[in-house]
Prior knowledge:
By secondary structure, this protein is an all-beta fold. 0% of the residues lie in helices and 49% in strands. It has 2 domains: 2-84, no CATH class; 89-180, no CATH class. The strands form 2 sheets. It has a 7-stranded antiparallel beta sheet with strand order 1-2-3-4-5-6-7, with no helix packed on it. A hairpin with a 2-residue loop joins strand 5 (54-62) and strand 6.
Amino acid sequence: MLYAHDGEMLGGNTAFAHFGSYQNVDGEIIAKLRTRRHSASPYHRSLVSSDQVTIRMRGRAEGQRYRFAGDVVEDLGSVFRAVMTPLGNDDVPPPGTVGDCGIVSGLYSIDIRMLDGIAGGHTGVMLLHDGRILGGDAFFYHLGAYASANGRWKGEFVNQEYTRPSASIRCSAVTTWASAFPAAATPRAPKLRRPRWPASAASAWPPR
């Protein structure tokens, strides 16, 4: 999952977060991303040589999609291909209200644990921005809204599947939660405005 707007890219999946930037040069999108592991699970392995690498990408729009090619700087000779597809931008609900001492806008790692006796859980990334929730993992994306003030926040989002491997659990659900957070909550990314094209990605190709 990637959030791209105004020259910045933020996103991630079940195990890794992505931070980067892009520019449009005569209709060509040129981007650079850094990866960072956010899940300690040994079952989520990197496809490249390290948990922290730099990815370079170039691509162009083809209808509603963006096709890219690129490489991993640290892996000599590596080649990636990627297709970025907009997801649910028209379904983003109205934002909630963020008051004094509300949670800071930014990219967060999430670790979900079931509280109803079911042995289950999951990890992913969540972008909180001025009352809106965007995020996801390797199989699902979610869109929602939250309200926050006085060291607490409450949110609700709709979870939708966007990849359909045989091992995934297919579902669509509305999730609601409330939480307290430390007064000195630290964001993992700068504040951003509403996205123009959230997208799925698994990327790259050698740059020119």
